[in-house]
Structure formats: C-alpha cells, structure tokens
Amino acid sequence: MSMVPNPLSVEVTVPREDTVLLTVQGYLDADTAKEFQHHLANQFHHGRRHFLLDLSAVPFMDSSGMNIVLRVYQEARDLPGSVHIVSPLPAVRRVLDLTGVSITVPLSESVEEALERVDSLSGAPREPGS
Q: How far is the C-alpha of 86 from the C-alpha of 118, rounded, in Å?
C-alpha cells in the first residue's frame, strides 16, 4: 500500500438549478472514491438531477471510480435525470471504452455539448440565462 496520498480536488458549479458540474482533478481510485461519492451524494441532497462529470484533469481511474460513475448514473436515471462524462483523458477514455461504461454513460467533448444533451432530454432548449 502506498504511503503517498493521491489528493483529489472536486470543484462544484451549478450552471442550472437542476444541473451540477463537478470538475475533478487527480486520481479517481480506491483512495479517493469515497470523497468523490460524498460530493455526488451532497448534490443529490440538493435536488440536482443532471450530473456533468468533467474528467479532463483525471489521469487515472480504476474500478472504484467507474463504480461510482455507474452508481450515480443509476440513481440519476431513477429521478429521472442524467449523467454525462466530459473530456476524459485518453487513458481514462480507454478504460471507459474497454469496460463498456462509455456505452451506458454518454461522453461529451465539452461542457457545452453535455448541456446540449441535457436540453435534448427535456425536449426543448432552455432560454439563455434560465
């Protein structure tokens, strides 16, 4: 077991009342999964239904991270809501593709693209600023 911690940073922004953007930085693994899960649970508690997970600064994700993504996907789907992975780095994208997670959870190249996907789920685009 490594004695060097893998710090995880999660920045939370709310682009819309029912939508949250979690910008994750650092390793998403067994050492940091519980902290990430806490951030997600807090957003469910605040009534968020759509989760945008910006993984552009996550160089590594193991099965612990994937399990949390799949769990939040299932919980959001039951609301109903959605989960979108934004800009995964090539190593993380490869893991998502190999495990089939990218078939279940949509991948977007940008936050704007993910927000457009959220809009398409509601059936009509939202007015700017709403």
A: 13
